[in-house]
Amino acid sequence: MKHLQAAGHVTGMTGDGVNDAPALRQAEVGIAVSTATDVAKGAASVVLTEAGLTNIVALVEQGRTIYQRILTWIINKISRTILKAAFVAIAFMVTGKFVVSAFAMLLLVFMTDFAKISLATDNVGSSRKPETWNIGGFITVSVVLGVAMVAETLLLLWIGWTHFGLATNNNALYTFSFLTLLYFAVFSIVSARERHWFWTTLPSKAFLSALAADALTGTVLTFVGLPGLMPLLWWQTLAIFAYAMVSCLVVNDAVKVAMIKRLVLNAVVKKPVDVTPQIAKRAYELYEQRGRQDGRAVQDWGKAEREIRR
Asked: Of 93, 200, 206, 280, whose CA is between 20 and 30 Å from 117?
């Protein structure tokens, strides 16, 4: 196991006995069968509950699906945090006003939580190869997407400030910013859920229902006339909706695909260099140099590995 891992491989081990316990613990995925001893089960990462090994396939697929959902949450969380914090801060420094009220921000956070929860039910395609936890690349993608959304929302705010009369109407300004952040939240998560183009896989019904409910409820609340929120003209609301959709599903989605391909996928698909044959050859040379004396195979292998990897 250690030699395979040192060569860059992701290892799995299946066992049932006490003698398998060290390898089960060393492997990235140690799998104990249903009839394994307690020691083997304790050392393994996973314990099969049914006889046979067919459940291992479902285990791997489910693990890779969970991994993809974790990545979706990371990309969405980082990019959205950058968007909300930077948008409010920069807009305040430029306009001298808080462009969104505290009530509207709390309402926004509460509503978008339902969409985040529904991510657990989303349809996710598992990869065909073992995943590599390249979190640095995904953080870079998330930051770039967050910065892009900040620039896009500030541009939209400038358009509203100069053409929609937001400079003289605080309630209209609050509504405008609330809808901007709401629609960007809805469409950005549609893009973030997929590592490729957003239309590659269809979202689950529960996920789509949560997003539609968020967008519809937020829009209706602005027309109800809650404190600090006043109705906008229908074409202004539609313009914000269309702008957010194009920004997230066209511009940002293209940026996401290009960056993931460059920073993440290329790093993952690089095949590890397996130096095991060279180590074995050098270990045999050491064995020959000592006159083929037995009892030092482990030491010869360790010395050969240090020399080759140096």
From this structure: 200
